Amino acid sequence: MDKEYASVRERVCAQEENFLSPYACKSSQTKGRVREEKSCDFRTEFQRDRDRIIYSNSFKRLKNKTQVFCAPEGDHYITRLTHTFDVSQIARSISRSLCLNEDLAEAIALGHDLGHTPFGHVGEKVLAKLSSKGFQHNEQSVRVVEVIEKGGRGLNLTFEVKDGILQHKSTGKPATLEGEAVSLADRIAYINHDIEDAIRAGILKEEDLPKNAVKVLGHKTKERINTAIADIYENSYGKNYVRMSDEVMAATNELRGFMFKNVYELTNKSMQDRAERMLTQMFAYFMVHADKLPAPYAKLLENYEKEVVVCDYLSGMTDRYAISVFEELFIPTNFSIGGVLV
Q1: What is the rounded CA–CA span in Å between residue 78 and residue 296?
Q2: Span 288-298, pLDDT tens digits
Q3: Angle of helix 319-330 versus helix 265-288 axis, rounded to 10
Q4: Which parts of the chain fold into alpha helices (H)?
Q5: What is the pLDDT of residues 20-77, one digit of tens each?
Q6: CA–CA dist 32, 49 (Å, integer)
Q7: What's the rounded Cα separation, in Å, for the pair 137 and 31?
Protein backbone atom coordinates (compact mmCIF):
# COMPACT_ATOMS: atom_id res chain seq x y z
CA MET A 1 0.00 0.00 0.00
CA ASP A 2 1.20 3.48 -0.83
CA LYS A 3 2.45 5.57 2.02
CA GLU A 4 -0.16 7.90 3.43
CA TYR A 5 0.62 11.62 3.33
CA ALA A 6 -0.83 14.42 5.40
CA SER A 7 -1.62 16.44 2.27
CA VAL A 8 -1.58 16.27 -1.51
CA ARG A 9 1.30 18.72 -1.46
CA GLU A 10 3.43 16.35 0.62
CA ARG A 11 2.68 13.50 -1.79
CA VAL A 12 3.70 15.63 -4.78
CA CYS A 13 6.89 16.71 -3.02
CA ALA A 14 7.72 13.05 -2.32
CA GLN A 15 7.14 12.22 -5.98
CA GLU A 16 9.52 15.01 -6.96
CA GLU A 17 12.21 13.57 -4.67
CA ASN A 18 11.80 10.12 -6.23
CA PHE A 19 11.45 11.12 -9.88
CA LEU A 20 13.23 14.39 -10.62
CA SER A 21 16.89 14.76 -11.53
CA PRO A 22 19.30 15.34 -8.62
CA TYR A 23 20.00 18.68 -10.30
CA ALA A 24 16.34 19.74 -10.39
CA CYS A 25 14.96 22.28 -7.93
CA LYS A 26 12.45 20.40 -5.79
CA SER A 27 9.53 22.26 -4.31
CA SER A 28 10.61 21.28 -0.80
CA GLN A 29 13.99 22.93 -1.41
CA THR A 30 12.69 26.41 -2.17
CA LYS A 31 14.42 29.29 -0.44
CA GLY A 32 10.95 30.58 0.27
CA ARG A 33 9.19 33.92 0.16
CA VAL A 34 10.00 37.31 1.63
CA ARG A 35 6.83 37.07 3.70
CA GLU A 36 6.29 33.66 5.24
CA GLU A 37 2.96 31.99 4.50
CA LYS A 38 1.18 28.87 5.62
CA SER A 39 1.65 26.02 3.13
CA CYS A 40 -1.22 24.94 0.91
CA ASP A 41 -2.53 21.40 1.41
CA PHE A 42 -3.00 20.83 -2.32
CA ARG A 43 -0.35 22.84 -4.17
CA THR A 44 3.41 23.07 -3.96
CA GLU A 45 4.98 26.51 -3.59
CA PHE A 46 5.82 26.71 -7.30
CA GLN A 47 2.29 25.69 -8.27
CA ARG A 48 0.96 28.49 -6.08
CA ASP A 49 3.29 30.94 -7.82
CA ARG A 50 1.97 29.84 -11.20
CA ASP A 51 -1.60 30.44 -10.10
CA ARG A 52 -0.80 33.86 -8.65
CA ILE A 53 0.80 34.93 -11.92
CA ILE A 54 -2.00 33.83 -14.25
CA TYR A 55 -4.62 35.58 -12.09
CA SER A 56 -2.64 38.82 -11.89
CA ASN A 57 -3.75 41.95 -13.74
CA SER A 58 -0.35 42.27 -15.41
CA PHE A 59 -0.70 38.81 -16.94
CA LYS A 60 -4.17 39.60 -18.30
CA ARG A 61 -2.86 42.73 -20.00
CA LEU A 62 -0.28 40.76 -22.01
CA LYS A 63 -2.98 39.85 -24.55
CA ASN A 64 -3.01 43.46 -25.76
CA LYS A 65 0.72 44.10 -25.82
CA THR A 66 2.83 43.98 -28.96
CA GLN A 67 5.26 41.16 -29.58
CA VAL A 68 6.61 42.36 -32.95
CA PHE A 69 3.70 43.69 -35.00
CA CYS A 70 1.75 46.55 -33.44
CA ALA A 71 -2.07 46.23 -33.68
CA PRO A 72 -1.81 43.82 -36.64
CA GLU A 73 -4.67 43.22 -39.04
CA GLY A 74 -5.41 39.57 -38.48
CA ASP A 75 -6.34 37.21 -35.68
CA HIS A 76 -3.32 34.93 -35.76
CA TYR A 77 -0.42 37.25 -35.05
CA ILE A 78 1.56 36.65 -31.88
CA THR A 79 0.94 38.93 -28.91
CA ARG A 80 2.96 39.13 -25.73
CA LEU A 81 0.47 36.70 -24.15
CA THR A 82 0.66 34.04 -26.87
CA HIS A 83 4.45 34.39 -26.83
CA THR A 84 4.33 33.72 -23.08
CA PHE A 85 2.28 30.56 -23.63
CA ASP A 86 4.78 29.42 -26.29
CA VAL A 87 7.68 29.91 -23.90
CA SER A 88 5.83 28.04 -21.18
CA GLN A 89 5.09 25.07 -23.42
CA ILE A 90 8.66 24.80 -24.71
CA ALA A 91 10.13 25.24 -21.21
CA ARG A 92 7.88 22.48 -19.89
CA SER A 93 8.90 20.17 -22.74
CA ILE A 94 12.58 20.78 -22.02
CA SER A 95 12.08 20.31 -18.29
CA ARG A 96 10.07 17.12 -18.75
CA SER A 97 12.73 15.58 -20.97
CA LEU A 98 15.47 16.41 -18.45
CA CYS A 99 13.42 15.41 -15.37
CA LEU A 100 13.44 18.97 -14.06
CA ASN A 101 10.64 20.67 -12.15
CA GLU A 102 7.96 21.54 -14.72
CA ASP A 103 5.96 23.58 -12.22
CA LEU A 104 8.91 25.88 -11.52
CA ALA A 105 9.73 26.25 -15.22
CA GLU A 106 6.11 27.04 -16.01
CA ALA A 107 5.84 29.69 -13.29
CA ILE A 108 9.02 31.41 -14.47
CA ALA A 109 7.89 31.31 -18.10
CA LEU A 110 4.44 32.71 -17.36
CA GLY A 111 5.97 35.59 -15.39
CA HIS A 112 9.01 36.38 -17.50
CA ASP A 113 7.46 39.24 -19.53
CA LEU A 114 5.00 40.74 -17.01
CA GLY A 115 6.95 44.00 -17.00
CA HIS A 116 7.19 44.39 -20.75
CA THR A 117 6.18 47.72 -22.22
CA PRO A 118 3.53 48.54 -24.81
CA PHE A 119 4.82 48.60 -28.41
CA GLY A 120 7.28 45.76 -27.86
CA HIS A 121 11.01 46.40 -27.59
CA VAL A 122 10.53 49.87 -29.05
CA GLY A 123 8.69 50.84 -25.87
CA GLU A 124 11.45 49.34 -23.75
CA LYS A 125 14.12 51.35 -25.57
CA VAL A 126 12.13 54.58 -25.19
CA LEU A 127 11.66 54.16 -21.42
CA ALA A 128 15.32 53.19 -21.03
CA LYS A 129 16.25 56.48 -22.68
CA LEU A 130 13.73 58.61 -20.77
CA SER A 131 14.52 57.35 -17.27
CA SER A 132 17.78 58.35 -15.65
CA LYS A 133 17.75 54.95 -13.96
CA GLY A 134 17.33 53.06 -17.21
CA PHE A 135 14.68 50.46 -17.89
CA GLN A 136 14.86 46.72 -18.61
CA HIS A 137 11.77 44.58 -18.95
CA ASN A 138 13.19 41.65 -16.95
CA GLU A 139 13.91 43.93 -13.98
CA GLN A 140 10.50 45.52 -14.34
CA SER A 141 8.87 42.07 -14.38
CA VAL A 142 10.38 41.43 -10.95
CA ARG A 143 9.18 44.83 -9.76
CA VAL A 144 5.68 43.94 -10.95
CA VAL A 145 5.55 40.78 -8.85
CA GLU A 146 7.31 42.32 -5.83
CA VAL A 147 5.72 45.77 -5.66
CA ILE A 148 3.05 46.69 -8.19
CA GLU A 149 0.56 43.83 -8.11
CA LYS A 150 -2.10 43.54 -5.39
CA GLY A 151 -2.22 47.23 -4.62
CA GLY A 152 1.47 47.49 -3.76
CA ARG A 153 1.76 44.24 -1.81
CA GLY A 154 3.11 42.24 -4.73
CA LEU A 155 2.55 38.52 -5.32
CA ASN A 156 5.12 37.37 -2.74
CA LEU A 157 6.60 34.76 -5.08
CA THR A 158 9.37 32.33 -4.19
CA PHE A 159 13.01 33.22 -4.67
CA GLU A 160 13.45 30.69 -7.49
CA VAL A 161 10.62 32.05 -9.61
CA LYS A 162 11.74 35.67 -9.19
CA ASP A 163 15.33 34.71 -9.98
CA GLY A 164 14.26 32.92 -13.17
CA ILE A 165 12.23 35.94 -14.26
CA LEU A 166 15.13 38.32 -13.61
CA GLN A 167 17.73 36.13 -15.29
CA HIS A 168 15.76 34.95 -18.34
CA LYS A 169 17.64 37.13 -20.84
CA SER A 170 20.47 35.51 -22.79
CA THR A 171 23.01 37.40 -20.65
CA GLY A 172 21.47 36.16 -17.40
CA LYS A 173 22.72 33.45 -15.07
CA PRO A 174 19.73 31.69 -13.51
CA ALA A 175 20.18 30.01 -10.15
CA THR A 176 18.23 26.91 -11.27
CA LEU A 177 18.27 24.64 -14.30
CA GLU A 178 14.60 25.41 -14.73
CA GLY A 179 15.55 29.07 -15.15
CA GLU A 180 18.10 28.04 -17.78
CA ALA A 181 15.40 26.07 -19.59
CA VAL A 182 13.13 29.12 -19.70
CA SER A 183 15.91 31.34 -21.02
CA LEU A 184 16.50 28.95 -23.94
CA ALA A 185 12.76 28.44 -24.45
CA ASP A 186 12.30 32.21 -24.78
CA ARG A 187 14.80 32.40 -27.64
CA ILE A 188 13.42 29.31 -29.36
CA ALA A 189 9.86 30.65 -29.12
CA TYR A 190 10.31 34.22 -30.28
CA ILE A 191 12.59 33.41 -33.21
CA ASN A 192 10.23 30.82 -34.61
CA HIS A 193 6.86 32.46 -34.09
CA ASP A 194 8.27 35.79 -35.28
CA ILE A 195 9.29 34.06 -38.50
CA GLU A 196 5.70 32.88 -38.93
CA ASP A 197 4.38 36.40 -38.34
CA ALA A 198 6.88 37.94 -40.75
CA ILE A 199 5.88 35.47 -43.47
CA ARG A 200 2.19 36.12 -42.72
CA ALA A 201 2.81 39.87 -43.03
CA GLY A 202 4.61 39.47 -46.36
CA ILE A 203 7.93 40.73 -45.01
CA LEU A 204 9.66 37.39 -45.52
CA LYS A 205 9.36 34.29 -47.63
CA GLU A 206 10.43 30.94 -46.30
CA GLU A 207 13.15 30.72 -48.93
CA ASP A 208 14.68 33.97 -47.58
CA LEU A 209 15.82 32.29 -44.36
CA PRO A 210 19.58 31.60 -44.09
CA LYS A 211 20.20 28.25 -45.74
CA ASN A 212 22.75 26.92 -43.26
CA ALA A 213 20.50 27.64 -40.27
CA VAL A 214 17.55 26.00 -42.02
CA LYS A 215 19.68 22.98 -42.90
CA VAL A 216 20.61 22.48 -39.23
CA LEU A 217 17.31 23.41 -37.61
CA GLY A 218 14.64 22.57 -40.18
CA HIS A 219 12.40 24.26 -42.74
CA LYS A 220 9.23 24.53 -40.66
CA THR A 221 8.51 25.92 -37.21
CA LYS A 222 7.63 22.50 -35.83
CA GLU A 223 10.89 21.01 -37.13
CA ARG A 224 13.03 23.82 -35.71
CA ILE A 225 11.45 23.63 -32.26
CA ASN A 226 11.73 19.83 -32.19
CA THR A 227 15.37 20.04 -33.28
CA ALA A 228 16.17 22.53 -30.51
CA ILE A 229 14.45 20.54 -27.76
CA ALA A 230 16.00 17.24 -28.89
CA ASP A 231 19.44 18.85 -29.03
CA ILE A 232 19.06 20.29 -25.53
CA TYR A 233 18.04 16.85 -24.26
CA GLU A 234 21.00 15.13 -25.92
CA ASN A 235 23.47 17.66 -24.54
CA SER A 236 22.00 18.19 -21.08
CA TYR A 237 20.38 15.00 -19.77
CA GLY A 238 21.98 14.00 -16.48
CA LYS A 239 24.13 17.13 -16.47
CA ASN A 240 24.18 20.10 -14.14
CA TYR A 241 23.36 22.54 -16.95
CA VAL A 242 20.86 23.11 -19.76
CA ARG A 243 22.40 23.99 -23.11
CA MET A 244 22.41 23.39 -26.85
CA SER A 245 25.24 21.92 -28.89
CA ASP A 246 27.61 24.41 -30.50
CA GLU A 247 26.18 23.61 -33.95
CA VAL A 248 22.54 24.17 -33.00
CA MET A 249 23.34 27.25 -30.94
CA ALA A 250 25.29 28.75 -33.84
CA ALA A 251 22.39 28.07 -36.22
CA THR A 252 19.94 29.58 -33.72
CA ASN A 253 22.09 32.69 -33.33
CA GLU A 254 22.40 32.99 -37.11
CA LEU A 255 18.63 32.87 -37.44
CA ARG A 256 18.26 35.40 -34.61
CA GLY A 257 20.72 37.78 -36.29
CA PHE A 258 18.86 37.41 -39.57
CA MET A 259 15.57 38.29 -37.87
CA PHE A 260 17.02 41.41 -36.23
CA LYS A 261 18.35 42.68 -39.54
CA ASN A 262 15.42 41.78 -41.76
CA VAL A 263 12.36 41.92 -39.49
CA TYR A 264 12.84 43.54 -36.07
CA GLU A 265 14.67 46.65 -37.28
CA LEU A 266 12.19 47.07 -40.13
CA THR A 267 9.07 46.75 -37.99
CA ASN A 268 10.64 48.85 -35.25
CA LYS A 269 11.18 51.70 -37.72
CA SER A 270 7.52 51.64 -38.70
CA MET A 271 6.35 52.21 -35.11
CA GLN A 272 9.43 53.90 -33.63
CA ASP A 273 8.43 57.53 -34.23
CA ARG A 274 4.82 57.11 -33.09
CA ALA A 275 5.64 55.05 -30.02
CA GLU A 276 8.49 57.34 -29.03
CA ARG A 277 6.36 60.46 -29.43
CA MET A 278 3.50 59.06 -27.37
CA LEU A 279 5.61 57.65 -24.53
CA THR A 280 7.91 60.68 -24.40
CA GLN A 281 5.05 63.15 -24.14
CA MET A 282 3.19 61.05 -21.57
CA PHE A 283 6.36 60.62 -19.51
CA ALA A 284 6.91 64.39 -19.48
CA TYR A 285 3.26 65.05 -18.63
CA PHE A 286 3.11 62.70 -15.65
CA MET A 287 6.47 63.91 -14.35
CA VAL A 288 4.86 67.33 -14.03
CA HIS A 289 1.34 66.13 -13.17
CA ALA A 290 1.99 63.15 -10.92
CA ASP A 291 -1.29 63.93 -9.20
CA LYS A 292 -3.02 62.69 -12.37
CA LEU A 293 -1.63 59.18 -11.98
CA PRO A 294 -4.24 56.51 -11.18
CA ALA A 295 -4.65 55.87 -7.45
CA PRO A 296 -2.60 52.62 -7.23
CA TYR A 297 0.40 54.37 -8.80
CA ALA A 298 -0.09 57.57 -6.85
CA LYS A 299 0.15 55.47 -3.70
CA LEU A 300 3.55 54.16 -4.82
CA LEU A 301 4.87 57.73 -4.77
CA GLU A 302 4.95 57.48 -0.98
CA ASN A 303 7.89 55.06 -1.19
CA TYR A 304 9.40 55.37 -4.67
CA GLU A 305 10.84 58.12 -6.85
CA LYS A 306 8.49 59.81 -9.29
CA GLU A 307 10.24 58.73 -12.48
CA VAL A 308 10.23 55.11 -11.31
CA VAL A 309 6.48 55.25 -10.70
CA VAL A 310 5.82 56.99 -14.01
CA CYS A 311 7.72 54.17 -15.72
CA ASP A 312 5.63 51.68 -13.72
CA TYR A 313 2.46 53.24 -15.10
CA LEU A 314 3.63 53.58 -18.71
CA SER A 315 5.17 50.12 -18.90
CA GLY A 316 2.02 48.55 -17.53
CA MET A 317 -0.12 50.00 -20.31
CA THR A 318 -1.41 47.91 -23.19
CA ASP A 319 -0.88 49.27 -26.69
CA ARG A 320 -4.43 50.48 -27.11
CA TYR A 321 -4.65 51.93 -23.59
CA ALA A 322 -1.44 53.90 -24.21
CA ILE A 323 -2.93 55.29 -27.42
CA SER A 324 -6.18 56.10 -25.60
CA VAL A 325 -4.42 57.97 -22.77
CA PHE A 326 -2.26 59.87 -25.25
CA GLU A 327 -5.30 60.95 -27.26
CA GLU A 328 -7.13 62.01 -24.12
CA LEU A 329 -4.19 64.12 -22.95
CA PHE A 330 -2.98 65.65 -26.19
CA ILE A 331 -5.60 65.43 -28.94
CA PRO A 332 -8.64 67.67 -28.51
CA THR A 333 -12.00 66.05 -29.24
CA ASN A 334 -13.32 69.33 -30.61
CA PHE A 335 -12.05 72.81 -31.24
CA SER A 336 -13.36 76.13 -32.49
CA ILE A 337 -12.65 77.64 -35.90
CA GLY A 338 -14.04 81.13 -36.41
CA GLY A 339 -16.45 80.73 -33.55
CA VAL A 340 -17.90 77.51 -35.00
CA LEU A 341 -17.51 74.35 -32.89
CA VAL A 342 -16.00 71.62 -35.06
Answers
A1: 30
A2: 999 999 999 99
A3: 50
A4: 8-19, 45-54, 57-61, 80-97, 102-111, 120-130, 137-143, 159-166, 177-200, 211-217, 221-236, 246-259, 265-288, 295-300, 306-316, 319-330
A5: 999 999 999 999 999 999 999 999 999 999 999 999 999 999 998 876 655 545 555 6
A6: 11
A7: 24
